[in-house]
Amino acid sequence: MTSVTYIEIIVGFALLAFGRKGLGLLLGAVGFFAGLTIATQLFGNASSTVLIIAALVGGGIGVFIAFFVQKVAVVVAGVFGGAYTGYVIAMQAGWGAETFPWIPMAVGAVIGVILAFFIVKWALILLSSIFGAYLVVHALHVGGFLESIIFIALVMGGILFQSRSGKPKAQPQQ
Predict the structure, then answer these.
(1) Which of 113, 134, 135, 152 is 20 to 30 A from 15 in CA distance terms?
(2) Predicted TM-score (pTM) of this structure
(3) What burial letters (b/e) apply to 101-128, b meaning 16+ CB within 10 Å?
(4) Is 114 helix (H, G, I), strand (E, B) or coil?
(5) How far, in whole angstroms, is CA 132 from its chain's centroid?
């Protein structure tokens, strides 16, 4: 096995277990392997140092996007989507445009931000489970039907584990 294979397996299992906890992990991993793939395609005969540098640059770009762009995008989408929905509901309820329904728009904006953050959690769980399972299966080189079974089992296990992690355990009754 090569060092890239070990990295794929480690990062794959990290994504399966902890993907929802950090968009930085998911986008960093995607950026790393995208950078590695692009560098391999463009500079196939390059040294492993060049390929690793390209992979690290791709990972760095992914982490940058995760920390500086994502939160702003989620908030903006939630505010605009929720406010517009509140506006539409107010119009349907008979509040005319001349009174401009600020209250339903503000309530809609708050609900929109909350929903946007909730949806992001589940999107992270799903995407990190799929990408993590892909990395592990790709590194194992199993092939055929067994590859599909392992992939599906890893995706389902990742979704189940991440959806249950971080929740307080029920206290036994005495």
Answers:
(1) 113
(2) 0.69
(3) beebbebbbebbbeebeeebeeebbbbb
(4) helix
(5) 11
